[in-house]
Specification:
With 391 residues, this protein is an alpha+beta fold. 28% of the residues lie in helices and 25% in strands. The chain starts with 8 loop residues before the first helix and ends in an 11-residue tail after the last helix.
Length: 391
């Protein structure tokens, strides 16, 4: 195929931002991505799970497959009246691109598409480039990347490395790459007792003291001192609920919700068992029950610094003059699902305004990000130096 015309990543990002794709709505955002990729010769497959639109697109030969992963869905705008400019207006002002998704992460999708367009077709050799784009990253993350990865694995689709376009930069573009993430566990702790009159406690079983003892034990426990490349794990109490409408009633139920962010020193299932053990200790001799309802949204993982990580870091240094920190900080992302099928890293814009009112990104950063992505593409498939050039 002939090399396509250059795509302006800023204008493509504006087209995407104008689509109010608040999870689970798509609002036509995936159509824009598909149209741009088909014009570049990609074979596109729409994979719908539940109410979520997903896209897997591939172009190239039987050689190594470099995948770009991202999401078109965005978080709600919050108080629309508090925005300086319309949240889905995609306005350009003060050398900034304004709008929900400008940082997280429609601009990165546009930047990678533009990078592919600007890279000569011959540079890919026998290799392949693919896109895994979901509409469920900001939501429950059940019917998006998790489901697509499972489908691709069942079909035998090979992805050799993946670059996720999350906004990883901290203070300036290129200062940080994510090479791993901590795991995340959410749990409801429910103590069921016996309701009664406060003047007759012997006729009741108060669940509140049991829950307090359990929360005190969990809060006082230090999970670890850290792990190589990772900060210490932490447990946070996020909600306490009794809902007792009367002052003279011992309640029948007390509940609390916690979140644990854990490093690779732990597995989610082991932490659930620990919570259950602590619950039994707190409820010893209690005339009632305690239950732990836990959900593990992702295990901790680390992509060992290798040729692919070095390639990305070198591309950032060559284009931006920055040596990126290799980090595992922050929350979770869809990289936690992709790591099951291939090594994965994350690199994108500065994330200081993501999820905020007046989300915005410097126009030059969007274009510079696309240039970095182009360097990564060209280096990846270079037979002499790239991890994707030799097979």
């Amino acid at each position: 195929m002939s090399d396509p015309a250059v795509i302006d990543p800023v204008e493509l990002a504006r087209d995407l931002i104008r689509r109010p794709s608040v999870t689970p709505a798509d609002a036509g955002a995936m159509d824009i991505v598909q149209s741009a990729l088909e014009a570049l010769g990609f074979q596109c497959r729409r994979l719908r799970f539940g109410e979520i639109e997903n896209l897997y697109a591939r172009r190239g030969g039987a050689g190594r497959n470099l995948c770009f992963a991202g999401h078109t869905d965005v978080v709600p705008v919050g108080d629309a009246a508090a925005w300086t400019r319309p949240p889905f207006g995609a306005e350009l002002a003060e050398d900034l691109l304004w709008g929900r998704g400008a940082v997280d992460m429609k601009s990165a999708i546009a930047a990678f598409i533009a990078a592919v367009a600007a890279t000569p077709a011959a540079a890919f050799g026998d290799g392949a480039v693919s896109f895994l784009i979901t509409g469920d990253e900001e939501g429950q993350a059940r019917d998006g990347t998790r489901a697509v990865v499972k489908q691709l694995a069942a079909e035998g689709e090979r992805i050799d490395h993946c670059l996720v376009g999350e906004p990883t930069s901290a203070a300036r573009l290129g200062d940080m790459i994510k090479i791993g993430r901590r795991g995340s566990l959410n749990a409801w702790l429910t103590v069921e007792g016996v309701q009664g009159h406060v003047a007759y406690p012997d006729r009741a079983a108060n669940p509140a003291p049991v829950l307090v003892r359990l929360l005190q034990a969990l809060d006082a426990h230090r999970l670890d001192e850290g792990y190589p490349e990772f900060q210490p794990s932490n447990l946070e109490i996020t909600e306490i609920e009794i809902g007792n409408p009367a002052q003279n009633i011992i309640p029948a139920r007390a509940r609390a919700r916690i979140n644990i962010r854990f490093n690779p020193g732990h597995r989610g299932a082991d932490l659930v068992r620990w919570l259950e053990d602590e619950g039994r200790r707190a409820a010893a001799d209690f005339r009632g029950t305690i239950a732990v309802d836990a959900s593990i949204s992702g295990e901790a993982f680390l992509t060992a610094p290798d040729a692919f990580v070095t390639l990305c870091a070198d591309a950032i240094g060559a284009e931006l003059g920055v040596t990126p920190t290799l980090s595992t900080t922050g929350g979770t992302s869809d990289a936690r699902f992709i790591r099951d099928i291939c090594p994965v890293i994350e690199f994108g814009l500065v994330g200081t305004t993501m999820h905020q009112v007046d989300e915005r990104a410097p126009v030059e950063d969007v274009r510079a990000l696309s240039r970095v992505y182009r360097r990564i593409l060209e280096g990846y498939f270079d037979p002499a130096r790239g991890p994707g050039g030799g097979a």
